[in-house]
Amino acid sequence: MELVLSSLSEEELEDVVRENERKWISKGIDSAFNMINSSMTNTIKGFRVVNEQAGEIEIDFEWYKEMSKAFVCITDKNISDLEFDCDCSLGSSGGMCGHFWLGVIFSFKKNFFNISNWTLFELPQEFIRKIENIEIIETKSGALLLTDKASDNFLLQEYIGSEISVKNGEILRSERKSYEYEGKETAYYLLTLKDAIVEKKTVPELTIRLSEGLYTKNLLKIGDRIEVKGKLIKDKFQGLLVKFIRHVTIGKLEKSKVKSITKDKHWTLKSSSNANKSYTITLKADGSWSCTCPQFTFRKKQCK
Ligand SMILES: [Zn+2]
Ligand SMILES: [Zn+2]
């Protein structure tokens, strides 16, 4: 590296440095926007204004499962020599990590400084344009977060960590997932609901997690409209997700359909243990179920 650099003219060297700087800046900005919009690696717990007058803020975040902090102070007074400190590996070695950029955005949104006073280096136009859509919000649990009005998550950001009711969501997709825990396979379903109503807002797409038991008990299928209550969380891999659902109500639309059945309805299902056997499930006019499988007839238990 040294050899290559020493063979460059001063002008060329400056270009290399500037090019590198640009690369690091856009990397940090991308990381900040990733943290605002999803939560792939580290979850931001919240921003805190430590000293409003001095423009001092702290950011709480999880870094490799450890609670960590970043301190940022950017005001019109100190803008050419701003203060920044971060626990993450890049930040603690003096780099401009995503947390730095989160601090820049938050401080700017708090009006601690005017963007036209920024002289440290040239801010990318893309960044200035993008932060127009960023807003500070307070979640129900009182944490301050940044939200991107241009992102899908925007509508529900303030309910993260809270119990929410999801109404009239149409099942758009369903995916069975399973994992092994203490030698036992546990399965669950991830359902994507279309146009669900959450706290009077219509959410274009929302993912919910249902236990396999709940999924099969309700005989759910694509196109069903359902109502659930659960906790909205920000999952590392799924993004926003409604979890801890204990009950599913088939929407009014479906219920009225069930009520209008005057004749018994029958379905034939292949046995899961013997491919030559099949059972008939009956939905009676009174809305009760019965099944010809041994589990239902002999044990009087609710089967699938
Ligand atoms: Zn950092
Ligand atoms: Zn059965």
TrEMBL record:
This is SWIM-type domain-containing protein.
